Request: fold
Amino acid sequence: MLWLKRRNNLRAKGILGINERNIAYISRYNERKRFPLVDNKLLTKRAAQQAGIAVPELYGVIESTYQLRTLANLLEPLDQFVIKPTRGSGGKGILVLSRQDERNFVKPGGQILSLAEIRHYISNILSGVYSLGGQPDSAFIEALVISDPGLEQYSYEGLPDIRVVIFQGFPVMAMLRCPTHASDGKANLHQGAVGVGIDITTGNALHAVQNNRVISNHPDTGVDFSDLVISEWTTLLTLASSCYELTGLGYLGSDIVIDRSHGPLLLEINARPGLSIQTASGIGLRDRLMTIQQLPKSNWDIEARIAYIMANFGAIDIEPAAAGVRGC
Amino acid sequence: MTSRNQIYLLSAILISVGLGLTSYKFFSLHFPLTPGSVRTVWNVEAKISFNSEGPSALADLALPNTQNNYEILDETFASSGYKFNIQNYSGQRRAIWTNTDISGQQNLYYSLQITPRIERESADMATRTVTQYVSKPTWLPAQHEAAMSIIEAAKKNASSPDMFTREVLKIVSGDPRAEDIHVLFSSDKDLSRANMALKLLAQAGVRAHIIRGVQLGNRTHNDPPVELIEVNEASGWTIYNPDTATAGLPDNFFIWQRGGPSLLDIEGGSRSKIRFSVLSNVIPAKNIALKLAREKTVALVDFNIYSLPVEKQNVFKLLFLVPIGALIVVIFQILIGVRTSGTFMPVLIAMAFIQTTLLTGIAILITLVSTGLWIRSYLSKTDLHMTARIGVVLIIVVMLMVGFSVISHKLGLDQALNMTFFPMVILAWTIERMSIIWEEDGPLEVAIQGSGSLLVAIVAYLAMSNGLVEHLTFNFPELLLAVLGVILLLGQYTGFRLFELYRFRHMDN
Reply:
């Protein structure tokens, strides 16, 4: 009975479950043929560059073990960089390095890796350790994004990113994902990162959660989340929403980082965005998605879409609870 | 029609076809729904013996017809040196044995297997076909007087016409020294009570005929045929037992011949007699259903798993359980939300458990995977291609299996020899994936996925090893269509998973 009551309460709050997300949104709005573009980060990056969407600079690609010989040359001019598997999922296999000396590099945690160790790491990526189903993969090296000073204090040993769920081009919900010591510098909520729900109309923090539990301060840095505001919010929403035109996916998650000098950059696109954004925001996705579904079919351009959500998806109307406080 | 409605329609069709065929097989062909259900089968043997007088002899035995209470499963005729055939005289089958080169004591055997019908047709089909009645009998003058006096007495005692037969039978089955009946029997010593009763009834103008049959018992030996009479009364045909003057067919009575001139005719022999032996047996209900269905050439049964050799049938017995395992996995994933490593890996593990038994299987699995993970943790430090590394893990799994088997055999634990039933490639993959999860997401996630897989495997094992499930899937393979339909329906489920109710618990306030 308790379960039934909770089920009804969650339904009443408009919470979207995995089964409904998979059937009613992902399989209905995301054509299978459009998946390769987003599952391959390199393809996403190149397509974004062509469409004029800002992304972190690409330094190089390694597609075969043979190319590993050229790794030393490739890394030579670089002081800080990130190595990523092209088809990694869930933030797996991402290695952030900064130069220590000629042949050694250091991870954010302080661990030192030699060039040989990096080669081994990349050969693991190539053999498919981090890709779905263990298919052979390739690795790419891109610029390390230096976090915006405003956001830096909310993160520990990693880069906070902003996940925006885009439905048919409308940004419906957003959260800031802050790495913690527990998440090992990764921005995935199930690994222990903090999720901060963001009011989609303003860029203000709503509510922060870690491991599904509401918190008010960052567990490592102790900074209060309630003052958090994301600057250039409309620019960021425009960037995120343009992923709809880029990919043709009806239901997607854009992962955006804010670089100190370059502003908002698209990091990757996810065709199967998770549901933790609801916990982080304290708001269910279902009602908003249905609202968008009921809109008249016309050619909404990005400005019109953003104007629509700005006018209709204010968090205060839906969720009266104050930031970080659970009412009733 | 939306794709959702198409799926609903398809599932509805699949489920109703599956359940429909199952109920057809249950209700019409009497395939049992539960394992171990049995039916009684009586083996009735008729032994004909006579003394041959000449070189040639002919025996002519009335054979039982299809009837509404019993189903004839099988008939066999044994008689060395005789020519044998079956002839049909206006609805009555008769077996004819002939031989032209015999002498002395002869024994002929006819045996049949019968089982009570599950549903008895109410219409008494046999009676209506009987056309033969005993004509007015001929008596000696003294007998005629006695007979008429019995009929008078019976008529006087009978309160209604229907009571008349009973009164006659009371006299016939009564004290044989009573004056009138003694007169009748003294001059016709070989006449049975049934025939005497028939003669009297014929004299009184009542239509009646004889029924010969066998009283089915647990184990009877060399019984003569039992004679009953069937009388056409105002209310219809009624069967009477002339020995007890009671109406109605006795329980477990198998009617061999209804009406008809004679049970057995012998030409060229003397001192003929027929004796019945009955042996009761219990036989799996399924075997009987199969036998009967084959005779009726039911396509559903003809083009079926039973037409394969027995060893192949056993393979299918296991294969038919896979959909049940799949159903369990689907339920656990979609309705409950248990995370497993490898979607259908638990089904394969459950199939291995079926061979090894549950506890041994779990012990073997945990030992193999944890040893494998331990060795694999060394491999992650080496610079190896993924494919090569899985190859290495696979070989290690094989060697572990051999090692554990030999050691446990030496220790006298022969159950561990069943280790080979575990799918090696799947185990190698599991170890590899678990190892990566360990490195990426930590031991907690390994524990979650490992125990999730084990839980689903155990539940799938319990479902698949259940005797009823095994019986149903093997004997009613069409139920798999229903399983398919259910899985299609589950695939449409958009509600919350049970674990999501826990996951979003903080939003319920």
Remarks:
- Chain B touches chain A through 30 residues (CB under 8 Å).
- The first strand of chain B starts at residue 38 and ends at 52.
- DSSP finds 18 helices and 14 strands in chain B.
- Residues 212 and 355 of chain B are 55 Å apart (CA to CA).
